[in-house]
Design goal:
This protein has 570 residues and is mainly beta. Helices cover 4% and strands 41% of the residues. Strand 38 and strand 39 form a beta hairpin.
Length: 570
């Protein structure tokens, strides 16, 4: 889809004037309109009533999740909701099923959706623009079943129900399916031309649906043929991890000598894609640098699975700090077609795609462990030679939900960290280039988003959030990459042993600061099937990982967040 889908009339007048600024988003970042969440917590099962159906957390009765909802006093009933008010019953769940987030699911799915981890039963994904040589290569979806019960999992592609006259239950036909035993993994692959440039793509998203809780990771250009030139991946957020308010994180569009000859690189353009999970979703978008009183650009996503995308087109443009507010839960993905972080260096390093699913502002953390992802020592000539004063380099970006004060803690020798409390302007990304073998801890007085760029091959993965523990995790890696795991432990007298594939690695942790320790492991290489790449981790507080080849890479961090109590989650 080289030409964007025609834009709606609602968008055309405002977006055209926005884009006529030549997307000159090198101005100061976004001044966010309205107050954003001051607490790092997720608000998902919110009672109908005050605050537009989003206030409070302890009431019983009807609870709306956009267009549909559930009644906690009658858990087998699905309700229709209009403007966050339950109006009538639309479905009775089958025996053994219960209502969760406005649909009928198994009890195990409902239990997972009350939690705050990466396992769930419904996920949305969309492919971002990559190099022309990579756009039609397979995207790999890795599905891991952490439970004991066999899971039946479906990959769905939305059909055009308006054109075909299909009923609502037929608008997401199954295109692939798999049965995955407990403690094992399976996969799907798909290929298709992503939307290129700013525009609207109806039905561009895909869904992964399971009858048991699973985790899902997506890698674009999956290196199955060992010839990938640009890859990126992210662990998907389940439905209960999605939200209404987001801020994007990307890198500046910067054309370097190695990016210039690449077909479809768009000069290293930044890109943000928003996916609807329900029909008639109104997006309100503030561009970075827009004054707080500036009216937002508005766009309606007409149906579940529709996608709206922003892409930069000028040198120095950056979508970091773009504020997206939606009337219903959405999934947001952002990154760059390719990037080298604006760096040019000789030797073994290449432009690579950067892509990450954004975490809603309500799920940001106040504390992170910045655990450096090591590049391959045999296939990496640093992009940061001038910054490598004390050893390996890690590249970090931070954006705050409101005016913030950051404090950094570390032990050992690290160069590039502020020694005093650091003020960070609301919505204005802060950049850190840190050299040295160690890791560090970041604390903020308000929730922040913190991402990491790995040396040599670009990534955009989250730092490890530590406001909430990870818990036991079964995960699968992508075949044909060389992998590194960085595991975070919270130290205490009664801390459980950390087990990786039933092997006690507790003695391999190195203290970093503030009661946290880090261990690095390189699991054996795996090939052919994701079923041969499954690992189990228990006793850890967090994890980040990367896969790397000579010309491509991916990195991801399983997310955790603090669940709301009786306070508002907005």
């Amino acid at each position: 889809m080289r030409a964007p889908f025609p834009l709606s009339s609602r968008l055309s007048s405002r977006l055209s004037s926005w884009l006529s600024w030549r997307l000159s988003w090198r101005l100061p970042w976004l001044l966010m309109a309205g107050a954003l969440s001051a607490g790092a917590c997720a608000g998902h099962r919110e009672p109908v009533g005050g605050g537009g159906g989003r206030g409070g957390g302890g009431a019983r009765g009807p609870i709306c999740w956009g267009d549909t909802g559930c009644n906690e006093d009658a858990p087998g009933v699905v309700l229709k909701c209009v403007d966050a008010v339950a109006t009538k019953t639309v479905e009775f769940c089958d025996p053994g099923m219960t209502c969760s987030l406005g649909r009928c699911v198994s009890q195990s799915c409902a239990d997972a959706e009350m939690g705050t981890g990466p396992a769930g039963c419904l996920f949305y994904t969309a492919a971002l623009d990559n190099l022309d040589t990579e756009d039609l290569k397979p995207t790999l979806i890795v599905v891991t079943n952490p439970g004991l019960t066999r899971a039946t999992v479906y990959l769905q592609q939305r059909a055009d129900s308006q054109a075909s006259g299909q009923s609502p239950t037929q608008t997401w036909p199954v295109v692939q399916n798999a049965t995955i035993n407990g403690g094992s993994a399976g996969s799907f692959t798909f290929a298709g031309q992503p939307l290129q440039g700013t525009g609207y793509a109806p039905g561009a998203a895909r869904r992964i649906v399971s009858d048991q809780p699973v985790t899902v990771m997506v890698v674009q250009s999956d290196n199955e043929d060992l010839r990938a030139d640009s890859s990126s991946g992210t662990m998907l957020l389940p439905l209960h991890g999605l939200g209404w308010d987001y801020m994007a994180m990307t890198y500046q569009q910067t054309l370097t000598a190695r990016i210039a000859p690449l077909l479809g690189a768009r000069g290293g353009a930044a890109e943000v894609a928003v996916v609807a999970t329900q029909s008639d979703t109104l997006l309100r978008i503030w561009a970075p640098g827009a004054p707080e009183e500036t009216p937002p650009t508005e766009q309606v996503l007409q149906q579940d699975g529709d996608l709206f995308q922003l892409v930069t087109n000028e040198e120095g443009d950056d979508l970091s700090g773009t504020l997206i507010r939606a009337s219903k839960p959405v999934a947001v993905f952002s990154g760059n077609v390719v990037t080298t972080y604006g760096k040019t260096a000789q030797g073994i390093n290449t432009p690579d795609m950067a892509m990450e699913q954004m975490v809603p502002i309500s799920e940001w953390s106040k504390s992170y462990v910045a655990a450096r992802l090591p590049a391959q020592t045999t296939a990496c000539d640093t992009l940061f030679a001038s910054d490598a004063t004390l050893g390996p380099v890690s590249y970090w970006r931070i954006v705050a939900s409101k005016q913030a004060t950051l404090e950094f803690s570390w032990t050992g020798q690290l160069d590039g960290l502020p020694s005093d409390p650091l003020p960070v302007t609301r919505g204005l990304p802060f950049r850190l280039v840190v050299s040295g073998e160690g890791d560090f801890v970041v604390h903020s007085n308000v929730p922040i988003l913190m991402t990491q760029g790995m040396d040599c091959e670009a990534t955009l993965s989250s730092a490890v959030p530590v406001d909430a523990p990870l818990g036991p995790l079964t995960f699968a890696l992508v075949p044909n990459f060389e992998h590194a795991l960085v595991i975070v432990r919270k130290d205490s007298r009664d801390a459980p042993p950390v087990l990786l594939d039933s092997y006690d690695i507790s003695d391999q942790f190195v203290p970093i600061a503030d009661g946290f320790s880090v261990a690095r492991r390189e699991p054996p290489s795996c090939y052919d099937s994701v079923g041969a790449c499954v690992h189990q981790l228990t006793g850890a507080h967090g994890l980040t990982l990367r896969g790397m080849d000579v010309t491509s890479s991916y990195a991801t961090t399983p997310m955790t967040w603090v669940k709301c109590g009786t306070d508002t989650c907005r």
